[in-house]
Design a protein that fits this description.
Length: 347
């Protein structure tokens, strides 16, 4: 009887331990995954749907807490067919819920970077990890020039896309463009250039021994709205340098977003590397709200050591940010990988 009783007690405590393990932690430390460039998330019905660049496929994570991504449900939702214009180098995917359906935007090519264009897939299922993703096609303006890093957003009842692209057919400079969309898979207006790399901190892009040997970069644009202001936070300088950083464009929420003169560029970076904190080449961000909607968070990737460039060393990190009295975002500095952070506030 004593042995049986001890066995039951042991099972009880084992069950308690198992329950404790299943509970998400209340704190976390960056990075939130060991690897993953161009992180993006979308929150709906109590879950975050997260994705990042996986090169040859599109992957989704589903979690109630971005800080608990390591334990999240994960699924490859789409793999491109071989030998197409979009079979390789799938970069910077984003997931959006528009007009009752899910959409994933991504850049891809046929193995030749000069052929990078934007594409989108669609899913009518309530849960994007379920149902069938269907290829909707290329998303391009009339010029059909090189394009990557699209972000899609709705403003005042109109749908817009912003992205990084070339002016012509040759590499050498990436600009930020904006256009209005007819629907989630069709651009209907002409593209408008709203930013080019022109300031010193935007033009670190040396590529010794390559052609071209200098590429100036504005990429990864992300829409951010706060009260009566609209912002586009973008990445500047080459990701292959330790100078990769975030810049900011701003305008009034009442402005014509397709008028280039509406946009004002902040003269200095708004978020940049913190070598003393183990954060190098911080960039390509996105944003999310805490589950209770009260906190604003920035999600970005960075390297942990200098000189690691654009490869698999880049990992996703998250931290809370605030707003200044003038209505502009205050992202602060990248927090140390040794710092313990409280998870986003819950409902």
């Amino acid at each position: 009887m004593r042995i049986a009783t001890l066995f039951i007690i042991a099972l009880f405590f084992a069950g308690c331990s198992a329950n404790r393990v299943k509970q998400p932690a209340e704190t976390f430390a960056n990075p939130i995954l060991s690897s993953g460039a161009d992180p993006y998330s979308f929150y709906k019905d109590g879950y975050y749907y997260y994705t990042h660049t996986a090169q040859n496929k599109l992957i989704l994570w589903k979690t109630k807490s971005i800080a608990d991504l390591k334990n999240a449900e994960k699924k490859v939702v789409w793999t491109p067919p071989a030998n197409t214009a979009y079979s390789k180098e799938l970069w910077a995917p984003q997931i959006h819920f528009i007009n009752g359906k899910w959409y994933m935007y991504f850049a891809a090519d046929d193995g030749n970077n000069y052929n990078h264009r934007m594409y989108v897939i669609e899913n009518a299922s309530a849960d994007p990890l379920q149902g069938k993703w269907e290829f909707k096609g290329k998303v391009a303006d009339a010029t059909n020039k090189w394009a990557i890093d699209a972000d899609v957003f709705e403003h005042r009842g109109k749908l817009y896309m912003i992205w990084s692209g070339w002016e012509g057919n040759e590499n050498g400079q990436q600009n930020i463009y904006i256009a209005r969309m007819k629907n989630p898979w069709t651009i209907e207006s002409e593209r408008v250039k709203i930013s080019s790399p022109e300031l010193k901190w935007e033009t670190h892009g040396r590529l010794p021994g390559q052609t071209p040997d200098q590429v100036n970069v504005n990429e990864g644009p992300q829409f951010l709205k706060h009260k009566d202001k609209v912002f586009i936070i973008y990445s500047a300088s080459g990701c292959w340098t330790d100078h990769y950083t975030l810049g900011m464009l701003s305008t009034s929420a009442d402005a014509d977003l397709l008028n280039a003169s509406s946009w004002k560029k902040h003269p200095e970076p708004v978020f940049q590397a913190a070598p003393g904190s183990g954060v190098y080449a911080a960039g390509h961000n996105s944003f999310f709200k805490s589950p209770d909607g009260k906190e604003d968070w920035i999600l970005y990737h960075a390297n942990s050591e200098p000189g690691q460039g654009c490869g698999g060393h880049r990992s996703p990190r998250a931290q809370k940010f605030t707003w200044r009295k003038d209505g502009t975002p205050d992202f602060g500095k990248p927090l140390s990988t040794k710092q313990t952070l409280t998870v986003p506030s819950k409902k």
